Amino acid sequence: MSLSVAVIVDCVAMAYGASVNDILSHRKPINIVRPRQIAMLLARRLTGLSYVEIGQRFGDRDHTTILHGCQRMEEAEKTDTGLARDLAMLAHIMRTTEAGILKAGVTLVGDIDPVAIALQIVDAPTRATNLSVDQALALSRALLNAREERQEVIVEAGQLQELAERQRAEIVALKATIVGLRQAPPSSDGVLRQAVDRVVSTRAAMVASAYTRAEKPTREAFERAVRDLETITQERTDAAA
C-alpha cells in the first residue's frame, strides 16, 4: 500500500504547526519552507510518485523544485539526528493514518486533481453544481495558489525590468566611453578625458550602491555624466567634420 500525498501533507502540517494551505502554497518563510520540503521528501519516499507527479500535487510546482527540496532534506538528515527521528516517526504515523482512512473510505482533498475538475466544468458547466465539498476546496486552493504565483511573477518581472534598464544605461555608457577614449589620447583634450573619467567613476559608484538608498542619486549622477560625455564627443565630431 502506498501513501497518498494528502495524508503526508496533513500529517506534516499538524506536526509542525502549519496548515495544509501553508504547505501547498508558494509562500517562502522558513517556518513553512522546511515542513514543505520534509513533506516533499516523504512523498518521494512513501508514494512511489515521480518528481513531476509530486510537483503537481504540491501546488503545481516544477519537478526541479521538488528535487531540490528532497535533496536539501536528505543532506540535512545525514547530520541532523532530530530530523532523522522526525522523518521516521512521521512515516510510521502516516502509514497508520492511511490505513484508517482507507478503511473508512474517505477521500482527502489532496487526492483530487483540481485541473481535472476545471476541465470537467468547462466541458459541462451544468455539472458544476454537483461538485463535492472536497472538490470545491481543491479547486479553490489551486486558484489561490495560482494567484500567489502570479504575484511572485509580477514582482520578479519588475526586478528584471529594473535590471534591464540598468544594463542598458551601462551599455550606453560603455559605448560613450569607447568613443571618448578613441578621441582622447592620454596627452590631449583634457576636457574630454575628464568627462570620460566622470563616467567611469560615477558608474562605479552606481554599481556599489545597488539596492541601497544611494542608488537613485548615484544613477542620476551617472546618467548626467553619460549625457555630458555624449555632448562633448558630438561637439568634437561636428568640429572635425
Structure described in brief:
This protein is mainly alpha-helical and 241 residues long.
How would you characterize the overall build of this protein?
- This protein is mostly helical and 241 residues long.
- It folds into two domains: 5-110, DnaA protein, C-terminal DNA-binding domain (Chromosomal Replication Initiator Protein Dnaa, Chain: A, Orthogonal Bundle); 158-240.
- It has ten helices and no strands.
- It has helices spanning 5-15, 20-24, 30-47, 51-57, 63-79, 81-104, 114-123, 133-183, 190-208, 215-240.
- Helix 3 (30-47) packs across helix 5 and helix 5 packs across helix 6 (81-104).
- The longest helix has 51 residues, at 133-183.
- The chain starts with a helix and ends with a helix.
- The mean pLDDT is 77.
